[in-house]
Write a structure and sequence with these properties.
homodimer; alpha/beta; Stationary-phase Survival Protein Sure Homolog, Chain: A; five-stranded mixed beta sheet; three-stranded mixed beta sheet; 5 helices; about 20% helix
Chain lengths: ~220, ~220
């Protein structure tokens, strides 16, 4: 879809990187391979994490700062607390740190065959918005889609409270696999990303780099 | 140090996990091995990331919810933007998501031999604070130490703005290594974590789970 908006350079991991968060690879050599180069579209594959891909693009491969970085559409939503684990969002965070407008896109689905058609308008609309208006310093956009044939609309949302439960399944002596289910702790909060997803809307959530809990700054009594 | 405060259960990765962020290992089997069990101290090693370790501890190994989770002391600071890459902070985030008071500790140093003696008082003070008072819901503490013989004191700080520069070093045809240097974008801001570190103070920064950029919620004009 992005080719409609300008020249596109893809720098993508060479395989699944589920739940990479903002992790990077300081201990290994990161390799990159040019897969395709044609008018308006260049594609690289990279051995690193999603965040490595952005660092490599911005600091190794691109000749100039891009106008926009998009990440996704990820298979699986990255709303609520799942944002913290997401490599899709991690890549967008990295671009944001480098002052490039950035958007992460994810689709809440369990099926392997995805039809992206219902989300095209929202993708184009959000990407165009960021290109035309820019984004405030240290802010990125996190967009999530529900699996529907037609979106009910797009909602600007805050991050909803939630948590993953029963996450470790023992599969042998001293051997475990990650599993579990997501519990929405605010199922009735209509202003949250997860509510939007559960009610057929795309959610657009502005996220910030600064994680300071400002309300607690005055309360902590540890200073010396 | 933590053994002075109560029974300690260590669940640690089996090797370096630099820059793991909040990443987890959904695609592999996570193995765990009991290394030590004595009065007041149990030690496990785990094949996963720091965040996997916390999930495993809370959902697989421990009989009850712990009173406190501490992570670190990490070799290298986790202040400013480096918080996003940190597995030390990632582990504390995970505990926070599960409603356990959590503190991440890191030391700004380049030397391999570290003397933790100068930081004992602050570690004990912050850990006792969290045990006695708890922490607000969805808030954790991020503590950083400068490498000094004696701390000038402890400061409650916000996260300072900064960025990593020149991060990719080409080491061969299509081969790169992460490198670079940190640039403090607010060198004169005395209320930031990085300022504290550069001036001989320990920094204590409350961080929050919620990454919503609230100031932008009303401004985004994408809704439909």
């Amino acid at each position: 879809m992005m080719c409609r908006l300008g020249d596109v350079i893809v720098v993508a991991p060479d395989g699944p990187r589920s739940a990479s968060s903002c992790s990077i690879s300081p201990l290994t050599t990161i390799t990159v391979r040019l897969l395709k180069q044609q008018q308006g579209l260049t594609v690289y594959q990279c051995s690193g994490t999603p965040t490595d891909c952005i660092k490599l693009a911005l600091d190794g491969l691109l000749e100039r700062k891009p106008d926009l970085v998009v990440s996704g559409i990820n298979h699986g939503d990255n709303a609520s607390v799942s944002i913290h684990y997401s490599g899709t969002v991690g890549a967008a965070y990295e671009a944001c740190m480098k002052n490039v407008p950035a958007i992460a896109y994810s689709l809440k689905t369990k099926s392997l065959q995805c039809n992206f058609r219902p989300y095209e308008d929202t993708v184009m609309q959000t990407a165009r918005y960021a290109l035309e208006n820019g984004l405030p310093q240290d802010v990125l956009l996190n967009v999530n889609f529900p699996e529907v044939e037609e979106l009910k609309g797009t909602k600007i949302c805050r991050v909803g409270r939630g948590r993953w439960m029963k996450e470790m399944m023992q599969v042998g002596e001293g051997a475990y696999r990650l599993t579990g289910y997501f519990q929405n702790l605010e199922p009735d909060a209509e202003d949250t990303d997860y509510w939007a997803l559960e009610h057929g809307f795309a959610s657009v959530t502005p996220l910030q780099l600064d994680m300071t809990a400002y309300t607690m700054l005055g309360e902590l009594k540890i200073e010396s």
